[in-house]
């Protein structure tokens, strides 16, 4: 079932978020290509590297097709909501997250962050499939990059509330370096702000805007040395027509 396309009240803010999605995707793909080129000569004879290369090319083609499809089908300031299975989206993201998180680094595959799923029963939600997937992908990717090479990322889902007021809850937890209280207060959701040396600084800013355009909430808890928890919640399809 598809909800008719609708333009949010503040369509200019959504258009800005969509522009940031496009910039983020292109620049992030550019960083990955740079990492690939930097490691190509040294590791091309490694069978594991070749498998990672094939996975990277396949995921890049798939992502480009989604970008082109989303921007060619609909006006850029319109949300096209369909009933979505949050757990299904997260499973798909988890399948490709290790390939994205590795970024063709010199770290051995065994030292890449571990990604664990703990998915509970959650209601379906109304959402723009491209945008919501992009937001969740960016948050998972951020967590994978923040975690130490031998660290861990956990994705949890759970229900909040009861009856028609039930909401789908998502937590993305990493045991990385964390963020300072000052960064959380002053810079967390600003575009082009990041604590990662090679980060684009658009993932969290853009994701937060997309979440809000889906009538969702986003909260971030983090402490230096202890990691970060990003908590999201969305109205169920029964309460968000």
Q: Proportion of β residues? A: 15-25%
Order of helices and strands: HHEHEEHEEHHEE
Strand arrangement across the biggest beta sheet: 2-4-5-7-6
The assigned structural class equals: alpha+beta
User: In terms of quaternary structure, what is this?
Assistant: single chain
Q: Average pLDDT, to the nearest integer?
A: 76
Provide the helix percentage. 40-55%
Per DSSP E runs of 2 or more residues, the count of β-strands stands at 7
- Cα Rg: 18 Å
Report, as a whole number of angstroms, the end-to-end distance.
Answer: 11 Å
* Main beta-sheet strand count, sense and barrel state: 5 strands, mixed
Q: Which parts are unreliable, with pLDDT below 50 for 5 consecutive residues or more?
A: 99-110, 192-202
Shape: globular
Number of helices: 6
């Amino acid at each position: 079932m598809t909800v008719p396309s609708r333009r949010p009240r503040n369509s200019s803010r959504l258009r800005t978020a969509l522009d940031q999605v496009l910039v983020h995707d292109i620049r992030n793909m550019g960083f990955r290509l740079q990492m690939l080129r930097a490691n190509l000569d040294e590791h091309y004879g490694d069978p594991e590297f070749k498998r990672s290369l094939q996975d990277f090319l396949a995921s890049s083609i798939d992502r480009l097709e989604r970008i082109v499809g989303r921007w060619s089908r609909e006006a850029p300031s319109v949300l096209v909501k369909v009933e979505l299975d949050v757990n299904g989206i997260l499973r798909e993201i988890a399948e490709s997250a290790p390939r994205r998180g590795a970024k063709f680094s010199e770290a051995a595959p065994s030292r890449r962050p571990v990604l664990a799923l703990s998915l509970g029963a959650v209601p379906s939600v109304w959402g723009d499939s491209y945008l919501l997937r992009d937001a969740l992908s960016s948050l998972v990717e951020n967590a994978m990059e923040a975690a130490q090479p031998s660290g861990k990322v956990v994705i949890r889902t759970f229900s909040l509330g009861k009856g028609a007021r039930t909401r789908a809850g998502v937590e993305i937890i990493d045991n990385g370096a964390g963020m300072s209280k000052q960064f959380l207060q002053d810079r967390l959701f600003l575009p082009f702000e990041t604590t990662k040396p090679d980060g684009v600084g658009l993932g969290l800013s853009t994701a937060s805007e997309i979440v809000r355009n889906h009538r969702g909430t986003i909260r971030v808890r983090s402490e230096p040395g202890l990691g970060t928890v990003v908590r999201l919640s969305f109205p169920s399809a029964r309460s968000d027509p």
